[in-house]
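Example 5.3 — Phospholipid/glycerol acyltransferase
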Amino acid sequence: MFYYVLKYVVLGPLLRLVFRPRIEGLEHIPDDGAAIVAGNHLSFSDHFLMPAILKRRITFLAKAEYFTGPGIKGKLTAAFFHSIGQIPVDRSGKEAGQAAIREGLGVLSKGELLGIYPEGTRSHDGRLYKGKVGVAVMAIKAGVPVIPCAMVGTFEIQPPGQKVPRIKRVTIRFGEPLDFSRYAGLEDQKAAIRAVTDEIMYAVLGLSGQEYVDEYAVKAKAAQTEESRKFPRRAR
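Solution (predicted structure tokens):
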């Protein structure tokens, strides 16, 4: 209930009014039935802008840190994410990926929309990074289409470290659904799930126009942090 109050009465109208998002390809989102919406992730604002413009409810797999923060702020953040139906996923440890896949498949089994960021984390520099294969495993196992999505301009309104978003128009693009039925039964084959993931990321790249980096975002971010620690002046 609270989800729909936020979407249609409070947050949705406010976001549309402030950011005036250009929406392209909305017709590619099915009116019913399970599907995965896979997009780039440039900003914390992405969590709110895309759901606000969709006619259907969409559930995202959110990092567990949003639900475990300390103090009043942490409790409020956790309550907010719980109230809008987002699912916490622990991204640490060997079982993290399998847990995320189980949760995602649970959403899809109900005929709902599942939102996922294949990069696994926000881009720290606005580029598009290599996708993790969990999205491919879910798409093949559930036998559902994947709709690529590109957020354009959200990095500029709220880059890392920017707590309050700048007021600037953004664009949200959806591409044609990708059908991976030809890979049925191959969700345990590394070559197959890598091929599916790369096809999804290529579709997102075509929509976003970002520079692509064939490396995982987490690894690239860690390398940048290490360089900043060793050579603070060079990192600037």
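Remark. Residues 36 and 114 are 5 Å apart (CA to CA).
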